[in-house]
Design goal:
Length: about 1000
């Protein structure tokens, strides 16, 4: 149906007719004003109808439905006798055939009281009532018409000629005579009308052909194109009806009561009109109650409530007319809810079509929407929801087109309409969101304030548009004054214009919008603040120093900001947060902020250069202990010097905001130092780099070969990896020690730098007492922790490298190989003491103790690994336990060093695991087996009673842990242990 509207030109009236209907309308003796030809309505939201049905076709069918709905089998015309006139003569001949009309149709009109409906909707009274209009209209004989009935008024309003009206009523009388007792809803009106007339009943063949085609096209629309129920494509009746309608395009069918063509047509039509989903018979015939055909017909009927001589005014007799229009609900399948939607649309559309000058119509549409909102909450019918959605979307689209740029839409001449347009937009949006949207139902309603959200959108959109226009205006002003001395910069002009716009918004628009958004003015100035701030930011980004133009712009911006903030604060004084939310939307753009941004750019440049320097110099660093007296890297000395110079340069900048910008500088320097530490330790490995993978249990030749192959592969891979990452010698013990010294040096110097920063800050003119109340922004936050973490990682890497890599030949390949008594720990201790001497001579004394402790822990781990996972070349008797204990005591003594080494409590802490495990070597095999059984049962429960499972290797040695006990047994050179292992796990008896 939208195409019907799109086909109209601006000069075409909604009530004009074409084709045969135009011929009929030409005989109507009631003229319309020229204003009716200027209607420019919106596209209908009720979807498209068949393009073969014109507006005139729909109007005539709607009138037929109206008259049929109001008829009665008996009835007598009631005449109206006005109080100031003599009784009127008998009805005219045209009305003498109207005895089929209901009493209400023939009731005389009254004008003694204003319409209750118009009063309820707030509509103005028209300048002339329907009675007076009819009296003043020329009749067929050029004489004034007499007072009219309601039915006569409807005929005039719908521009139906007297002859057409007479023919319709005559046909209905015949239909009623042939169907006594049947309700009109059980009649397919176009079909019955076709049966009542032949060509002889019309003035000419052309009029008859047009009339016949209209009724057939209406059957097509109601039964085929827009049926009440979905139509199966294979329906034979539908196929037959379609063929009949197509055939009439070439040759009109013969109508009449008993001819064959009419019987075929009746059979097809009634089969379709009486369809039901369950096969039962309907009391009503469904031929005009399919969506959107019924809505379009009803829309035309409702439009008849508007005065034909005053398109923007509803007639005074609307109450009586509306009562009759509602009688069509039975045929059209409508109800009060659908009426409310249609009537809201008709009122709204008429306001738009008549030039948007009659605000009463807009108010009435808004009032009617309130009823629609109530209806929407009481039903979830999908068909209703679809109509509701399309109608409200059309209304909302029209309203938002104006509200999203309301500064262009409204001025002093039409500002009165703005509250109602806003109300309609908000009401439509609320219904669409709250009652139709599934997303809204899934969320808590308290989370969504539809009205406030929409108004927020309107304010921001309109002000952004207005700001863009001010930008163009300011640029034009600058170009016009460019030849004058000292012309103002664009942003200085813009600041003045934005201030005036904010004042206008606060005085005119915000009081209206505040009804739906309590902080409308605050949102408005926040939007302007952001828009201007974005332009100011671009301006400042293009300057490198404070020029006269920059000063003018920044001063104008400062004044504008104060004005905008003042409006926001006053508007938000009663808010829960005191206006903080609005103020948060207004990031400051005063002069200090602009200067601060330039200083931040300076800081970023310095930090980027420093980071590039770190990358370049670390690639060249050799980590040689002789490169510096302190045993740390020269690159670290240079980095610290550059940082010191950067701090000096910062405090010499001529800015009034050193305390505010110092955190930015400190953060950048902090990240650079962290980056230095991260790069310096990358590729140096860690504890896990050197600890070998735990071997499986070893009591057979196959296991021995697997372990040796795996060990060889592991060492090859590890050595290759270390060499690839660091070069041939970059991760040797001495080089790692230099890196550790370097991290310690950086951490120490940071404390010195932090004290110097406080002194520089105290000497700064812009510093205040509160700037020294905390250390935030004046201390290095992440680089000290990075240094500590780097020292820890490399200290462990050095320790485990020495034990598991450098001393592997004397520990792994020498200790307890063959007979324990002939392969004691002394060779390993000698090499260990050499490495302790290197560490003592190289590493700073502040981190030396930590490194020695890590080396001790690594040596203890290596010692246990030899005892519990040393491979099949090692075997121990119960008597060997004393040798093992003595060797471990010698190992501890190396680190105690007669009291000059590590404290006893530190040694005891790290040796706990070894001391707990060593007593197992002293125990006999039977005792160990019993312990193993008990421990396994405790670990695996009843499932281990039938057969002891093989415990997995955890590497967490413990005298009560099954895997630890099993490994003691595997390395026990004892008959009882061998028998147990053979019987339980089928391990070889001999090692």
């Amino acid at each position: 149906m939208a195409s019907l509207f799109r086909d109209r030109t601006l000069g075409y009236s909604r009530r004009d007719s074409t084709g045969a209907a135009a011929t009929a309308a030409s005989s109507c003796r009631y003229s319309t004003s020229s204003s009716s030809a200027a209607l420019s309505p919106l596209p209908s939201p009720f979807s498209d109808l068949t393009p073969t049905l014109s507006v005139a076709d729909l109007r005539e069918t709607a009138y037929e439905i109206f008259v049929a709905s109001c008829r009665t089998s008996t009835g007598k015309a009631l005449t109206y006798i006005p109080t100031d006139r003599s009784p009127s003569p008998s009805p005219s001949p045209s009305n003498s055939n109207s005895s089929s009309s209901s009493p209400s149709m023939q009731r005389s009109l009254t004008s003694t009281a204003a319409s209750k409906m118009k009063k309820a909707l707030g509509l103005r009274s028209s300048s002339s009532s329907g009675i007076k209009r009819a009296e003043g209209s020329p009749g067929s004989g050029g004489k004034p018409k007499k007072p009219v009935t309601v039915g006569e008024l409807m005929r005039v309003q719908m521009k139906v000629s007297e002859s057409v009206d007479s023919r319709i009523r005559r046909a209905l009388l015949r239909i009623a005579a042939g169907q006594v007792g049947r309700r009109i809803e059980s009649t397919v009106l176009p079909l019955e009308l076709l049966q009542q007339f032949k060509a002889a009943d019309f003035t000419d063949q052309r009029e008859y052909d047009a009339w016949q085609k209209r009724n057939l096209k209406m059957l097509e629309a109601g039964l085929l194109l827009h049926p009440h129920m979905p139509l199966d494509k294979s329906n034979t009746a539908a196929q037959r009806l379609r063929q009949i309608i197509q055939a009439t395009l070439d040759r009109p069918i013969e109508t009449g009561r008993n001819n064959e063509s009419m019987q075929v047509l009746r059979t097809a039509v009634m089969a379709l009109a009486n369809r039901s989903s369950d096969g039962s018979l309907f009391e009503s015939c469904h031929w005009a109650d399919g969506f959107p055909l019924n809505l379009r017909l009803y829309e035309i009927l409702l439009e008849a409530c508007f005065d034909v001589n005053d398109e923007a005014s509803i007639i005074e007799e609307v109450d009586e007319l509306m009562d009759l229009i509602k009688k069509t609900w039975g045929i059209l399948g409508l109800n009060q809810m659908l009426h409310n939607i249609c009537f809201s649309w008709v009122l709204f559309n008429r306001y738009v079509a008549t030039g948007q000058v009659e605000n009463d119509l807009l108010d009435a549409a808004d009032s009617q929407l309130a009823e629609v909102a109530k209806d929407a909450k009481t039903t979830k019918d999908p068909a209703y929801a679809k109509i509701l959605n399309s109608t409200l979307t059309a209304m909302l689209g029209w309203a938002e087109k104006r509200l999203l740029a309301y500064h262009d839409t409204f001025d002093a001449g039409n500002i009165e309409s703005m509250p109602t347009i806003v109300s309609i937009g908000v009401s439509a949006a609320k219904i669409l969101v709250e009652d139709i949207s599934n997303e809204y139902r899934r969320r808590r309603k308290s989370e969504v304030d539809v009205a406030r959200s929409r108004i927020d959108t309107y304010i921001r959109s309109s002000l952004r548009t207005a700001f863009a226009q001010l930008m163009e205006k300011a640029d034009s002003s600058r170009r016009a004054s460019r030849h004058q001395p000292n012309p103002l910069p664009v942003l200085a002009i813009l600041a003045k214009d934005v201030g005036e716009l904010a004042s206008k918004e606060n005085e005119i628009f915000s009081p209206i919008l505040k009804r739906w958004h309590p902080f409308a003015a605050g949102v408005a100035v926040a939007t302007l603040h952001v828009c201007y701030g974005n332009e100011l930011k671009q301006f400042v980004s293009g300057i490198t120093e404070l020029t006269p133009d920059a000063v003018q712009v920044l001063r104008a911006a400062d004044k504008l900001e104060k004005d905008l903030v003042q409006i926001a604060v006053e508007d938000s004084v009663d808010s829960d947060d005191g206006g903080k939310a609005i103020i948060r939307e207004m990031p400051p753009f005063e002069a200090e902020g602009a200067i601060g941004n330039m200083v931040k750019d300076w800081i970023k440049t310095r930090i980027d250069r420093l980071k590039e320097w770190v990358d370049r110099n670390l690639q060249q660093e050799v980590w040689n202990p002789q490169a510096n007296e302190g045993g740390f890297a020269p690159s670290a000395v240079e980095v610290l010097r550059i940082i010191d110079e950067t701090l000096d340069a910062f405090f010499h900048l001529p800015i009034p905001m050193h305390p505010a910008l110092l955190p930015d500088l400190m953060s950048g320097l902090d990240r650079c130092l962290q980056y230095y530490v991260s790069k310096a330790k990358s590729g140096c490995g860690s504890r896990n780099t050197y600890v070998p993978t735990m071997p499986a249990l070893t009591r057979c030749t196959t296991a021995t070969k697997l372990w040796k192959k795996k060990d060889k592969t592991l060492n090859t891979k590890r050595n290759s990896q270390v060499a690839t990452m660091n070069g041939d010698n970059s991760s040797g013990v001495l080089q790692l020690c230099v890196r550790i010294n370097t991290f310690h040096r950086i951490r120490t110097e940071l404390e010195v730098l932090e004290k110097r920063i406080i002194i520089l800050l105290r000497n700064s003119e812009s510093a205040h007492v509160e700037d020294f109340s905390n250390g935030l922004g004046k201390k290095f936050e992440i680089s000290p922790a990075a240094c500590i973490e780097g020292i820890q990682q490399l200290s462990e890497a050095v320790a485990y490298r020495i034990i598991f890599h450098d001393l592997s030949p004397v520990l792994w390949d020498g200790l307890y190989i063959g007979e324990p008594a002939s392969s004691r720990i002394e060779p390993f201790l000698q090499e260990l003491e050499k490495n302790l001497t290197i560490i003592s001579n190289t590493v700073n004394e502040r981190v030396r103790t930590r490194m020695v402790a890590d080396l001790m822990r690594a040596s203890f781990d290596g010692f246990l690994l030899v005892l519990l996972a040393g491979g099949p070349s090692r075997a121990f008797t119960q008597q060997d336990s004393q040798i093992i204990e003595d060797d471990f005591k010698s190992l501890k003594d190396v680190f105690w060093a007669n009291g000059d080494g590590l404290p006893v409590d530190v040694i005891n802490k790290y040796s706990t695991t070894v001391r707990d495990v060593l007593p197992l070597f002293r125990a006999d095999a039977e005792s160990l087996i019993e312990r193993f059984r008990r421990s396994t049962l405790e670990t695996y429960g009843s499932s281990a009673k039938s057969r002891l499972p093989l415990p997995p290797t955890s590497g967490q040695w413990n005298p009560t842990e099954p895997n630890t006990l099993l490994r003691i047994l595997c390395y026990r050179n004892d008959e009882a242990a061998s028998k147990f292992l053979k019987k339980t796990y089928n391990l070889p008896k001999k090692l």
